[in-house]
Amino acid sequence: MTMRKVDPRIQVSRRRFIKSGVAAAPAATLLAGGATLGAESAWAQANSLPAHAMATLTQMARDTYPHDQIGDAYYRKAVAHWDDSTATTAAQRQLIADGVAMLDTEANARFGTDYIKVPAESDRVTILQAVEPSPFFKAVRADLVVSFYNQKELWPKFGYEGASAQYGGYLHRGFNDIDWLPVS
Amino acid sequence: MTNAAKFSQSDNSVFVIVGSGAGGGTLGNELAQKGVKVVILEAGPRYTIPDFMNDEWPSFSQLAWTDPRTTSGTWRVAKDFPNLPAWIVKAVGGTSIHWAGASLRFGEWEFKAKTTYGEIDGANLLDWPISLDEMAPYYANAENRMGVNGTNGIPHLPGNNNFKVMQAGAQKIGYKTVFTGNMAINSQPRDGRGSCEQIGFCFQGCKSGAKWSTLYTEIPKGEATGNLEVRPLSQVIHIEHDSTGKVTGVVYADAKGVMQRQKARGVAIAGNSIESPRLLLNSASSRYPDGLANSSGQVGRNYMRHTTGSVYASFENPVHMYRGTTMAGIIRDESTNNPKRGFVGGYEMETISLGLPFAAAFFDPGAWGRGFTSKVDDYANTAGMWIIGEDMPQETNRVTLDSTVKDKFGMPVASVHFDDHPNDIAMRNHGYQQGTAVYQAVGATRVAQVPPYPSTHNLGTNRMSENARDGVVNKYGQTHDIKNLFISDGSQFTTGAGVNPTLTIVALAVRQGDNIAGMMSRGEI
Asked: Cα dist. B261→B22, B70, B92, B246, B256 in Å?
């Protein structure tokens, strides 16, 4: 018997995709064409923060937790709540707006353009490193490590299966099926 | 619950227990079985097994004690999780809902730390006023009631993938005592509870009920006697005493935040090692200006959290460490006292696993960028172990009342200060080195040495001592200063030993139940 593997393809029905939001406003845009559209147009209907700020946060999310096998939609979803006036305070939105301005100031000083237009990830990372001690970076990163990795749709990408009690646990589903260890 | 008692708040014949975890829940059942009327006041809500969630963050929100606390000191937790020094539970059943189930007896020498280790600079070592011989029958009682496998003819659990990796590596480097542990997790149906289904999520509340927790063992058994009432959502604010100094009852905030008073014949505190000293300190009065039971000045001091750390290793092939019990096995070869290693005391290596959401949060708190995400990308191929060893009690490692931050009831919150002792650091580094060797022996492609998580083992802040000047309670957990006030949790540990603490907490609670009942029948309290 060989180990039971986990299918890494993201299983999302169209219905669930719409329901789960991927940020209510960008969802329609994504379904219409998704990542092929410009980073800011994906946030064309942002509510509380400028589309530029949300696009910058999205790029910052990918640069903070880069996983090349995961599409932009999930990074957008992970930061979408910053744009939700019912989920954030005015002070928090100001922190984001000021933080985005700070990223752009750093980017312009170093590379002569806004953060999202700096082409190389390694260059954008130097900008993030420059702002790492700021309350803005700390708040976004601490939030992101939950809001990004806690998306159940992504778990199979990492080989994680999540809840098991409803299937009777892993007792008959591979808890001890490792097949590559040296025989002692 | 059908037979559960309901006592009057003015009934001064009841014995009040603060907290319903391994210590409080067990003591409550013991006293109820002996005919003592008991009220357990629990700060958190009461859940049932179906309420538990196989989902790390929602479960954390459901179960964890997340009321504000503050931190200081050089431990990394103060930087990474400044308001979360400990990962413990606020619910009926307490941290016995969250614990992994490892149930190990102390070694004989671990009750005699000062004698065995000698004078260690900066360490406030003391021998326990009890020996292993005295504890043996109570350990046996605890193992039987908890259904510890490897005792009472109960078979060990089968090993999961995460254990098999650790076991193979351990054998390759010559370790001998490697097995699936002495776990209080049913390997076959027992005591009205089913057998382990290898669900994982042991930390999130066991959904099969195979793992022992006071929530569905001790507490309902105590309630069935008609002598035990458990009041959830009842957070004790302070303990009252009369002009002779004896405690007379407690004031607690009920579910609506309204202050209530429960009269009591005696009080036992079992709120875990952060809340228990906080309650004593917050109960200061003109008679006891430094807090109750604090004539020694030791309340809140000698806070221990075990020397911990984790080792996670990436392999070429899948492990799926999250499948099956979280603490699925142990290496015990390093658990002896062998100062030639450069430190005193011993440690265990026990498998541990985290789901993907917690792996992201705890693999390297605060880290980001490709160096970090490449570890997350390895998640399916990762095996993990936890190092847990004896840490040195230090007077300056301490729970105090925060001078500015108050909780929603206006009560100063606990502030936890911790610095590693050089012995702790030497032990952790040895554990990292040995854990790394274990995994490299079976082909690890990368090994990560992960810093301690918020404390799950909180010990020592109301420690037991022979002499009143050295500690807070005597060998029965009775405070030196006030004869009808007791401590019933891990805060009474004189030293921490190199093993998981729950079995000893339960054994002490059973022993304390015998002694409190005896004191009552002799009219001493």
From this structure: 25, 28, 20, 16, 14
Distance, CA of B252 to CA of B236 (rounded, Å): 4
Beta sheet of B235-241, edge-to-edge order: B235-241, B247-253, B259-263
Which segments of chain A are extended strands (E)? none
Integer Cα distance of B303 and B77 in angstroms = 15
Q: In what order do the strands lie in the sheet with B446-450?
A: B178-179, B330-331, B347-351, B382-389, B307-314, B446-450
Nearest CA in chain A to B204: A163
For residue A66, which of B483, B368, B431, B42 has the smallest C-alpha distance?
Answer: B368
Q: Does B165 touch chain A (CB under 8 A)?
A: yes
Place of tokens 């005919």: B35
Rounded to the nearest 5°, which phi and psi values hold at B262? Answer: -115, 120
* ipTM score of complex: 0.94
Contact indicator for B53, B68 with CB cutoff of 8 Å: no
Query: Phi and psi dihedrals of A113, rounded to 5?
Result: -155, 170
Q: HSE, CB side, 13 Å, CA atoms: give it for residue B368.
A: 24
Q: How far apart are CA A111 and CA A128, in angstroms?
A: 13
Neighbour tally for B406: CB within 10 Å: 12
* Chain B residues within an 8 Å CB radius of A141: 366, 368
From first CA to last CA, the distance across chain A in angstroms is 18
- Cα(B121)–Cα(B418) distance, integer angstroms: 16
Of the candidates B489, B443, B426, B469, the one whose C-alpha atom is nearest the C-alpha of residue B23 is: B489
Other beta carbons within 10 angstroms of residue A64's beta carbon come to 22
Contact criterion met (CB < 8 Å) for B323 and A173: yes
> How does strand B15-18 pair with strand B382-389?
unpaired
Edge-to-edge strand ranges of the sheet holding B485-487: B228-231, B38-41, B15-18, B266-269, B485-487
CA distance A70 to A67: 6
Confidence of residue A46 (pLDDT cuts 50, 70, 90): confident
Structure tokens at B227: 């002598």
Q: Across the interface, do A6 and B320 touch by the CB < 8 Å criterion?
A: yes
Beta bridge partners of B268: B17, B486
Strands B38-41 and B15-18, sheet pairing: parallel
Residues comprising chain A, all counted? 184
Check CB contact of A160 with chain B, cutoff 8 Å. Answer: yes
Q: Nearest CA to B400 among B378, B415, B382, B390?
A: B415
Radius of gyration of chain A measured on its C-alpha atoms: 19
Mean pLDDT for back-to-back runs of 10 residues, chain B (525 residues): 87 98 98 98 98 98 97 95 96 98 98 98 98 98 98 98 98 98 98 98 98 98 98 98 98 98 98 98 98 98 98 98 98 98 98 97 95 97 98 98 96 98 98 98 97 96 98 98 98 98 98 98 95
